[in-house]
Amino acid sequence: MAEHLxxxxxxxxxxxxxxxxxxxxxxxxxxxxxxxxxxxxxEMEILDATGSxxxxxxxxxxxxxxxxxxxxxxxxxxxxxxxxxxxxxxxxQSVLQRRESYEREKLKxxxxxxxxxxxxxxxxxxxxxxxxxxxxGYITS
Length: 141
Fold this sequence. Notes:
The chain has two domains: 9-67, no CATH class; 71-140, no CATH class. The chain is 28% helix and 23% strand. It is built from four helices and eight strands, in the order E-H-E-E-H-E-E-E-H-H-E-E. It has helices at residues 21-24, 38-41, 71-79, 83-105, and strands spanning 13-16, 26-28, 35-37, 43-48, 51-55, 62-67, 126-128, 138-140. The strands form three sheets. Strands 1-6-5-4 form a four-stranded mixed sheet. It has a two-stranded antiparallel sheet with strand order 2-3. Strand 2 and strand 3 form a beta hairpin. Helix 3 (71-79) crosses helix 4.
């Protein structure tokens, strides 16, 4: 495993997430000679919300930048029947449902907090509503 990820945006290949060529291509490191496929062999690091860097596992030299899909691209791919996009779309919908639920149910101010006796509080946490792992669940006490 490489000590660190070395990024040189000018010397690496760029791919769009739904362009399968990056998944099929065997990459060769021009520094150390390592060869392999990105998803199976290379090291990946998600640097931000725009994409992932893949690097050589032997020396750390950057090999490729894969740009993530946008919300609209994901929706279009899911609607076209792409199995990976459908799975991601469902996960994304679950996240959106949880965010909407949180915004509806969160406390809006300190006046909503209950009066309590004593100097310490003990909490017991549980998740409810998880029958469907893709659906929203709620933490209760």
